[in-house]
Design brief:
The protein has helices at residues 4-17, 58-68, 92-97, 116-127, 178-189, 201-204, 219-226, 241-251, 265-278, 283-287, 302-317, 328-339; strands at residues 22-31, 41-45, 50-52, 84-88, 105-112, 131-137, 143-148, 155-156, 160-165, 170-174, 193-197, 213-215, 232-236, 258-261, 289-290. By secondary structure, it is of the alpha/beta class. Helix 8 links the parallel strand 13 (232-236) and strand 14. The longest helix is centred in the last third of the chain and has 16 residues, at 302-317. This is XdhC family protein.
């Protein structure tokens, strides 16, 4: 399952390539509480189809009504090619009407009939796993995108809107057991591209999660082949040191934003000692290894453990500085000390 942003852009491109009228709506500013962050997008096709979201639903409904008005009574969405800036929630009554919490205010940029060729170029860059900065001329509606190396925050100026789109986040799972199926399912619903690697045919033949790619090469080869970047997470789940360590050996040298391995505190300590003694890894590289993985939620079943693992991955993806006190290993250390 693709990320929501990419799904919106791809669907918008398809509509426009077919010659269908459509608008692209972007959250460009928020004040107070807002259901969706700056940079959130939605696309609305003239016939009534919609993809994406800019609020909890009420603003979408208002935009749909205005855009579909056959008389064009609402001039906000029946202009020329020039983008329109719309503001919702200035008054308490309007904020309540549109479901904006605590008197929040949201400002939107509406683009009319974006160029399908420009959208195709943007999507091609994203499919090639480039970080892309998209610019919109606020006077003409002309939009263009280019690859960039550093993500930047959304910027709304007098003449231009600039925002960054990234390629899909990826998750490489080492091991095709039941736990991997639960982790893959949660990851797919959160917009990750998921690949599952297991060279053991007996562990992968019953794989049943649609949407996850399955590979059967050796873990170190598959890690190298996926070329991990800063939007890649790698998790070893086999409990077999021969397989998990092979994957970690390459993963810890990569740019992956998350590298973790299943196992107890003792097993993870032994793993770190092996990596330091037998493999050419620096202390800094070994320090990137997460384990025991997950946030502590008292999980017992494979499904609950998967929630714990994905909670930690998503938190780190979103730039949350997760306190060590919330990790599985830290909580179990405290529990052990209290029981003495």
């Amino acid at each position: 399952m693709e990320s929501l942003d990419i799904r919106v852009l791809r669907q918008l491109h398809d509509w426009r390539a077919q010659g269908r009228d459509a608008i692209l709506v972007t959250v460009v500013q928020t004040w107070g509480s807002s259901p969706r962050p700056e940079g959130s997008i939605m696309a609305l096709e003239k016939g009534g189809a919609v993809v994406g979201s800019v609020s909890g639903g009420c603003i979408e409904d208002d935009l749909i009504r205005a855009y579909h008005d056959p008389q064009g009574a609402d001039p906000r969405l029946h202009g020329d090619a020039r983008p329109q800036l719309l503001t919702y929630g200035i008054s308490a009554d309007e904020a309540h009407r549109f479901g904006l919490p605590c008197g929040g205010t949201i400002r939107l940029l509406v683009e009319f009939n974006p160029c399908p060729e420009a959208l195709a170029h943007l999507l091609a860059l994203l499919d090639q796993r480039h970080l892309v900065q998209r610019h919109v001329d606020l006077q003409t509606g002309h939009a263009w995108g280019s690859a960039t190396r550093v993500p930047t925050a959304l910027h709304l100026g007098r003449e231009r809107l600039s925002l960054t789109f990234g390629p899909a986040y990826r998750l490489l799972l080492i091991g095709g057991g039941q736990l991997s199926e639960y982790v893959a399912t949660i990851a797919l619903f959160n917009g990750f591209d998921v690949t599952v690697c297991d060279p053991r045919s007996e562990h992968i033949q019953g794989w049943s999660v649609a949407g996850a790619r399955v590979v059967t090469g050796m873990p170190d080869d598959e890690v190298i082949a996926c070329v991990p970047d800063r939007r890649t997470a790698i998790v070893a789940l086999t409990h077999d040191p021969k397989l998990d360590d092979m994957a970690l050996l390459e993963a810890l040298k990569s740019s992956a934003f998350y590298v973790g391995a299943i196992g107890s505190r003792r097993n993870n300590q032994s793993r770190r000692e092996r990596l330091a003694e037998y493999f050419d890894l620096t202390a800094e590289e070994i320090g990137k290894l997460k384990g025991p993985i997950g946030l502590y939620i008292g999980s017992k079943t494979p499904a609950e453990i998967a929630v714990s693992i994905m909670a930690e991955i998503i938190a780190i993806k979103n730039g949350v500085d997760v306190p060590r006190e919330l990790s599985v290993g830290s909580v179990k250390d405290r529990q052990e000390q209290q029981s003495v």
